[in-house]
Amino acid sequence: MSLVPRSFDSDLTFTPLFRFLDEFNNFSGGLTGTQAFTPKFDIQEHKHWFSLHGELPGVPKENVEIDFTDPQTLHIHGKTEKSYESPKEGEDIEGGKIWRSERKTGEFSRMFNFPQPVDQEHVKASMKNGILSLSVPKAKKEQAHKKITIY
């Protein structure tokens, strides 16, 4: 996301600068080989539960941890690694040269704070085709105090 609009009513053009910054953002993880990233999630509220669906392509479920930091905050975190040995950018390989390596490796983390207490004991999670799906039931509402009549 850019803090400066990409179009101006001016003779001065910043297009090359913005292109350079975009390319630097895409390339910056390649220098160290690892980078933190933030997976994208869809969140829905239903009558009795919340559902979350997040993109974690290429991340095995063994590398994902899900826990609660408090009664209403869910923490999803883990790491991704390349499953093959790859040369670094610019390194010569047999019959060619690596031009660009965009796949990132590193750690990820997301926190979700629900607007009401949830039932932590009955959360269900599954992973299929790189999509992490969670069903988070809402906690049953506390019963209102019942007035006891004395006979």
UniProtKB/TrEMBL annotation:
Map out region (Disordered) in residue numbers: 76-98
The answer to keyword Transmembrane applying to this record is no
Stretches assigned to the SHSP domain: 32-151
Q: Which family does it belong to?
A: Belongs to the small heat shock protein (HSP20) family.
| Parts forming coiled coils | none
Which SUPFAM superfamilies does this UniProt record tie to the protein? HSP20-like chaperones
Pfam families with a match to the protein in the record: HSP20
Report whether Hydrolase shows up as a keyword of the record: no
According to UniProt, the name of this protein is: HSP20-like chaperone
Q: Compositional bias (Basic and acidic residues) at which positions?
A: 78-98
What keywords tag this UniProt record?
Stress response
